[in-house]
Amino acid sequence: MKKVAVFDLDGTLIDSLQGIALACNAALRLSGLPEHEVERYRTFIGNGMDKLIRRALPEEADEEIFRQVRSDYDTIYCDVCAQGCPLFPGVSEMLEELHRHDILTAAVSNKPHNQTRAVVQSSFGTLLDLAQGQREGGPLKPDPQTVLQVLEKLGGRCISYTGDSEVDMETGKNGGFYTIGVTWGMKEEPLLRRTGADMIAHTVPELERLILEAAEEPEP
């Protein structure tokens, strides 16, 4: 069976905080609503677009405002994605090295699938074998269902699941995957350890080493 290294997208492979903040603030501004500092968005993201918008809105905002800001954000952020989101330094080299070792690479995101597709097309080229975002009505992480669907499509087994948040650590544990937390993303190491990380990577080369070591483990 093929070996597959699965990754979260935002905060793990791509540095997306600035783009998310830019798009969400622009959407809020269109509705005359207060904007937020970029760092505040670290506390808003990780649970999908709907949760992001609800956390960014004032408490008194009604459903009509929510739907309008959500629609504006989706449009604006797709444009941001299509222009390319920066990969963290070393990520492209890591993905290429994994391919050289016959390891398939996949990304699973709570970002809507249209946004995920735009990011992958503009920023990754052939570096990822498959990427899947959240589809309308489908489960969000920490439900591992989307990861399992990706593995089925690739005809492989997960040798590692890597992410930067407690949602990702819980996803890995819920799926029974070897789970690696990275410290260059949205959340800090103690939280990653507390919520289920088997290992912690502080640099991309360290992450690459952990995945290659996992690939050498015998198939269960």
Number of strand elements? 6
- How far the N terminus sits from the C terminus, by CA atoms, comes to 11 Å
How many distinct helices? 9
Q: Ranges with pLDDT <50 over ≥5 residues?
A: none
Main sheet attributes: strand count, strand direction, barrel closure: 6 strands, parallel
Work out the helicity level.
Answer: 40-55%
Apparent shape: globular
Mind telling me the C-alpha Rg? 17 Å
Strand order of the largest sheet: 3-2-1-4-5-6
Overall SS class: alpha/beta
Per DSSP, what share of the residues sits in E-state strands of 2 or more residues? 15-25%
Compressed to H and E, one letter per element, the order equals EHHHHEHEHEHEHEH
Task: Please state the average pLDDT score.
Answer: 94
Question: How would you describe what is shown here?
Answer:
- It is a single chain.
- By secondary structure, the protein is an alpha/beta fold.
- It has helices at 17-30, 49-56, 63-82, 91-100, 113-123, 145-154, 166-175, 189-194, 204-215, and strands spanning 2-7, 103-112, 130-134, 156-163, 179-182, 199-201.
- The protein has nine helices and six strands.
- A six-stranded parallel beta sheet has the order 3-2-1-4-5-6, with helices on both faces.
- The model has no long low-confidence stretch (mean pLDDT 94).
How is the secondary structure organized here?
Elements (H helix, E strand, L loop, with lengths): L1 E6 L9 H14 L18 H8 L6 H20 L8 H10 L2 E10 H11 L6 E5 L10 H10 L1 E8 L2 H10 L3 E4 L6 H6 L4 E3 L2 H12 L5
Parallel strand pairs: 1-2, 1-4, 2-3, 4-5, 5-6
Helix pairs in contact: 1-3, 2-3, 3-5, 4-9
